[in-house]
Amino acid sequence: MLSSMIRRGAAAALMACALSAGAALAQDTVKIGVLLPITGNNAADGGRMLKAHELAARQINEAGGIKSLGGAKVELVVADIQSKPEISRSEADRLITRGNVSLLMGAWASATTIPAMQISDRNGVPFIVTSAVTDSITEQGLKNVFRVAPKAKWFAENVAGFMADLNTGDAKIRKVGLAFEDGPYGQSVSKNYKETLLAKGVFVVAEESFKTGTPDLSTQAAKLKASGADAVLIVSYVDDEVVLLRAMAAQKFNPVIIGFGGGHVHQTLLQAGGIAEKTFGIVEWMPDVAKPASLAFVKAFAAAFNNEIPLSNQAQAFSSTWIAAMAIDAAASRDPAKVRDALARIKVTDGPAAVLPDDVIEFDERGQNTVGAVVAQVIDGKFVTVWPASVAQQKPVR
Amino acid sequence: MIRFPLIPVLLVVAGFAAATQDRYLMDVFVLTCLYGTMAVAWNLAAGFTGLLSLGHSLFIGIGAYTVAYGVTAHGLSPWVMLPLAVLIAVVCALAIGVLCFRYGLKGYYFGIATLAFSEIAFFLVSAAVWLGRSDGMMLPAGGDPWISLQFRAKWPYGLMILVVLLATLIAGWALLRAKTGYYWRSIRDNEEAAEALGVPIFGFKLFSFALSAGIVAVCGAFYACYVAFVDPRSVLGVELSIQLLVFSIIGGMGLLWGPLLGAAILIPASELLRIWIGASFYGVNIVLYASLLIGLALFLPQGLGALRWRRRVS
């Protein structure tokens, strides 16, 4: 009598457990917090990033969700950080304490990313830094912070590597001129360039700065020409670069030109015509990066968003979302601590997450992804990836 | 004439008690008190002495950057840097004040001059390598939290800013009911008449401006500890100065606690709007927030704090 009651009770309890677990697995989504500037100064960037995050989430769910959690769907909990550091911080806090998220991603610029990732770290919730490049982010020893984007100083190393590869026969680059806008962006990048190049034995023979929006840069062009530089590295916004290229062309000065990021790889540069031809630009990612995952991403993105071509930061956002899902799947848990450990061990060699230029996506002991940039060259009025050879469409043209 | 702001003080203390159980509520409480204190301090100069400063972010920035620099570059406790921060802010305020008052800059001209000084600081810091340029500075966690002021819990922050707010309200109340307060208001209402009656206007204007600067520097130092990150845009930007002005105008510039009221309504309102609407309809929360501001400015030009007085008159 007693034993049968116990047995029945145990059976009922077991069934209740199974039912509730089954219900939890079938209905509960896995929540991933996404911090983005949907409004404010960086609203356009935030909106772009959101498209890529949403595309990835849709693909993950269509492919069956998180398999180790019974096919649970991924739910992006998006918070608008209004392009402000203190809002980013409070929103991170809110998503962690109220939003029940397993992981956070974001938060566009370094200034909005740093406060949010610190809060996340202190609460033991993993944070994937999608696009911020300030070196110090992964130099603080925060064990819950993982960065998909490269460090700012790596761009300089990539440029040095690219120039070394470009050196063939007699056409060696020995002397370099720097031309940069005199704001924090131009100053910090050109400082990295200078330190890195000097360490590699390349002489920096000219440093010309200018104010953004200067209508005529003939003086700077003349000084760069007089310095005898074999290559000119330009760090500016695209409109200034067009002005400088025009001034250099007018003085028949044709060195190797390497521009920087979105200030170079930009439709406006192509509209400048012949003066942009054969110029190089270093950038995190290009839509023509020769990797199957990358090409599939560009195709899916165009199909989803009216033939739009994604930009480099969108590739980072897309990849980050897939990495998050893979980590949760590997952890087989919604628990942030377990997801963190899975992230630390993750190694992506193929599949949809592998859109970024390097062969492998994995995080070192400081949470930094060792990812390199690519070099795009303007060939016949189009940006074409020419370096590194592993993902290039063709060889650089000199 | 100036009564002790007993009800606001009790409400703030009650707010702290209510928020201790919830991290997110405590965050809203801390932000409200932080901006409330800064706005009350701003209003001591602007609303009571007629010194319409548009560059208070300079002093907030000095507070925040002094602490951030001491902590990151030399590993010093914020407790050590705090007095230094206040000292630097007060000296800067005195220097700016002496310059402006000596050459008789008043009203909007004074406002523009202060704005110019804060913008200069903004660009200087944005270019200073040792202050992290526009990348800003991160404050590391670790060590004894009561020394580094980096707590995992929120309530110690709430307690600290509560103390700062109460001290500001009590000091403001004590000064406003004393001779100083009457001098300040006489300067605000008619500087020439006050001077003719023998009010030492130069000294009392300086005192008001420097006191206000000192208090917001404390708030800036607190901001650095709380957010654990400072950058020029968030602590030296003109938006911050304007925010203090908005809280004060909405709450009522004629009252000591008016700016606190403004902050206590607008900060939770913007949080609620963001959570309820901002997550599903991006940007709508900001439109609603702006409408709220416009409505308040149109229908209550004297600020919310004036509601009570007007009813009593009619």
Quickly describe the structure:
Chain A has helices at residues 2-27, 43-62, 85-97, 110-122, 152-166, 184-199, 218-226, 238-250, 267-271, 292-304, 312-331, 336-345; strands at residues 30-36, 74-80, 103-106, 127-129, 145-147, 175-181, 203-210, 231-235, 256-260, 280-283, 347-348, 361-362, 374-379, 382-387. Chain A has 398 residues and is of the alpha/beta class.
Description:
The complex is a heterodimer of chains A (398) and B (314). Chain A is of the alpha/beta class and 398 residues long. Chain A has 2 domains: 25-150 and 290-367, Response regulator (Rossmann fold, 3-Layer(aba) Sandwich), CATH 3.40.50; 153-283 and 375-391, Rossmann fold, CATH 3.40.50.2300. Chain A is 43% helix and 17% strand. Chain A is built from 12 helices and 14 strands. Chain A has helices at residues 2-27, 43-62, 85-97, 110-122, 152-166, 184-199, 218-226, 238-250, 267-271, 292-304, 312-331, 336-345, and strands spanning 30-36, 74-80, 103-106, 127-129, 145-147, 175-181, 203-210, 231-235, 256-260, 280-283, 347-348, 361-362, 374-379, 382-387. Chain A has a 7-stranded mixed beta sheet, with helices on both faces. The longest helix of chain A has 26 residues, at 2-27. Chain A is elongated and about 65 Å long. The N and C termini of chain A lie far apart (92 Å). The relative contact order of chain A is 0.12. The model of chain A is unreliable at 14-26 (pLDDT under 50). With 314 residues, chain B is mainly α. Chain B has one domain (6-313): ABC transporter involved in vitamin B12 uptake, BtuC (Orthogonal Bundle). Chain B contains 15 helices and 2 strands. Chain B has a two-stranded antiparallel sheet with strand order 1-2. In chain B, helix 7 (155-177) runs antiparallel to helix 10 (201-227). The longest helix of chain B is centred in the N-terminal third of the chain and has 27 residues, at 23-49. Chain B is globular, with a radius of gyration of 19 Å. The two termini of chain B are 20 Å apart. The model of chain B is unreliable at 310-314 (pLDDT under 50).
